Give the backbone structure.
Amino acid sequence: MALARLLSRAPAGLAARPRLPLVGFARGLFIQTENTPNPESLKFLPGKPVLDTGTAEFKSFREAQVSPLAKRLFQIDGIKSVFFAQDFITITKAEETPWSMVKPHVFSHIMDFYAEGGKVLNDANEGISDTQITDDDSEVVAMIKELIETRVRPSVQEDGGDIVFKSFDEETGVVLLKLQGSCSGCPSSSITLKSGIENMMMHYIPEVTAVEAIDEDEDEDDLEILSPPTGGKARQASNEAREALKSLGDQ
């Protein structure tokens, strides 16, 4: 995933992973494709807006009923999930289905859809940002959302995925996130989650003690999260972390 870029934005940096862009052409519509760290996911860039705001992910044809484009894409044999962001589409296929059988149909469906001028999502299902700060958010939750929006999300979306904020436990300090797009099921997702996102959040937000991923079909209330052990390294003062977080946008 985007571990190298995430770590490059944290105190200790690593070199970015080289990208392998591919190019597709479908009857007049130029579509660029990019590989992702997940071999079963491919990122398609139609060169036109996909969503105005937020993201949307569909894991089945039934879920895709709110999206005319996703319904078309699920008609392709071997499609496991469809993920929409503001300027790209990530398709995840079954392992046994080769990309040579999938890509031409994806190109065709995307081209036809844009030629018809349809909307990606129905009006009532427009993408909503999970990082929008509300009046009910605590100061810590607001900081977590800001860090995800300014530091984490840009990196993982470059690799065709997304990280969605689900909750923060004030007592244990555990942040729950949901992996989407190419991040879901990616072999390197756990490394990115722990070595990249968790370390970054714990560095800038002392109240965070751990970051965990929630499965697609798993209820947050059913998760058994162990409380972090007491003791350990001394943390920086909260006001120092908040000042560091405020300065992220200027770096």
In short: The longest helix spans residues 139-158. The first strand starts at residue 21 and ends at 26. Residues 10-22, 218-242, 244-251 have pLDDT under 50 and may be disordered.
